Amino acid sequence: MRVNLLEEIIRKAAPAQIFPKEFLIAWCGVPVLVYKGFPESILNIKSEIDKNIQGLTLENPGSKWPKTTLGCLKGGETLNNKEIANLKDICEVINSRIDTAKAFTIRELSVVLIQDRTAEKRLSTFKIPLDLEKELDTSFEFEAVVKVVQDFSHENLFAYSEKIKMKGHRQGHYQKPFICSTLIYDLPENQPDYFSKFTNAIDKALPEKFIWFHPSSRHITIRALIGNQAPK
Asked: How far apart are CA 65 and CA 14, in angstroms?
């Protein structure tokens, strides 16, 4: 991979804002924060990478809609319909406390070499600034997240619960040794309190079911670079 070309693509892009939308439970019971959509500036970076850099891993479906993965079920844990409904209620309560107009500002991206899928263990982090002289991009392309959000709606929850109950993506999947290079946006050190309210509410309702990744590892995957699969 031509790192200098990747750096050139990123440095030419405008800084951007990305807006939180809601918490939901993804396939295999994975709790995530979903964003309203990737800004055009970030979509252009993804497009330029695909057009100009040869030999990269194909983009994973999971990075085509923006999210932050917060944790996962512990090994051997499962969810029943009552627990899934409880999680849905928790998501709705905490979602009402999210200021969806208060965005995260993307001023730099990071090329990271990770040692596991939590992105807590990193061999290296190479930060690349965007072009801060350009106007801040506040757009977002919502289409990619529409189906995900609709699937977790009350009217579709019964059918979608079978996806939530799927095996895999438990603690072992995320914490076992795994080497991958990926392009990410790291969330800032000072994060909104709705993250802790969400994780605490789940732990209170379903104690000992989930593990939570360290807040310092929270990120949005832009695109996998080299490796079998980027962190989800």
From this structure: 20
Domains in the chain, number: 1
Q: Cα(173)–Cα(73) distance, rounded to whole angstroms?
A: 10
Whether 93 is in a domain gets the answer: yes
Write down the residue that tokens 């190479």 correspond to: 126
Q: Are 161 and 142 in contact (CB under 8 A)?
A: no
pLDDT tens per residue across span 21-40 = 999 999 999 999 999 999 99
184 beta partners: 110, 221
In a domain, 231, yes or no: no
Burial of 230 (0-12, 13-18, 19+ CB in 10 A): buried
Q: Identify whether 232 is part of a domain.
A: no
66-96 burial code (b ≥16 CB/10 A, e <16): bbbbbbbbeeebebeeebbebbbebbeebbe
- Reported as a single tens digit per residue, the pLDDT across 73-94 is 999 999 999 999 999 999 999 9
How far apart CA 173 and CA 141 sit, in angstroms, is: 30
Is pTM beyond 0.85 here?
A: yes
For 13, the domain range is: 3-226
Confidence bin at 141 (pLDDT 50/70/90) = confident
